[in-house]
Specification:
Fumarase C, Chain B, domain 1, elongated, Fumarase C, Chain A, domain 2, 10 helices
Length: 293
Amino acid sequence: MTDTRTETDSFGPIEVRADRYWGAQTQRSLLNFPIGWEKQPIALVRALGVIKHAAATVNIGFGDLDAQLGEAIQTAAREVIDGKLDAHFPLVVWQTGSGTQSNMNANEVISNRGIELLGGVIGSKKPIHPNDHVNMGQSSNDTFPTAMHIAAATTATHVLIPGLEKLLAALETKEQAFGHIIKIGRTHTQDATPLTLGQEFSGYVHQVRQGIARIETALENIYFLAQGGTAVGTGLNTRAGFAEKIAAEIATLTGMPFRTAPNKFEALAAHDAIVELSGAARVVAGSLFKIAN
């Protein structure tokens, strides 16, 4: 039998695996949503680590968070970003609509890891509380949309675009290599006028080049972040300037041009930028399907 420890929340005590950093709210989500196999994407988990690290930096700067506690939060959040705590994020995508359980999963893991770093008792919420310290100045309603944007931007930048650029380079090579090969064109399932195989591949090259441009264009709106809008977009319970400062800190941590969204009501509620990027990715997928056939 796996050893457990007792964690608590407003509903009371609950047993949690002793070798895991998550707390009561994460455990309740595991019990309440025992459906599906689709775990939260690792890119989203890492993005939550970025947000918590950035928030700690900003809150220390405002003087609202004790520097020692803040530095422990930063260290734990860095471990999340670096993938050292992936095993402590067990939740599936099926949960309440605002992503509260995943936000609390991050808060609890970083809190308990920070407590451990400071020599405290895991699960005690002392001296680092998951809500009061790790989640300071934040709401699930602005944190989760922000995590979505960070995850989308980092995945597109570090995975999708490099993959397309590698394909583009290979197709350009073939375009040149096949420039002297003459073939019969096809239209309406019949032979048509001739062209070179290189010319045919030039079409594939342009499709992929255009796909990269579409993704890069869609990313421009992904760089706008909801963080600082808190629960409904008004920024209640944050300091003036929090939104701008945390966006700048996230930009520093990721090396990407993130900035605060000009309208937090839209940023929290619409997710149009995600839909736009999804549409661009769908076009790319269609292009690759045509090339493959």
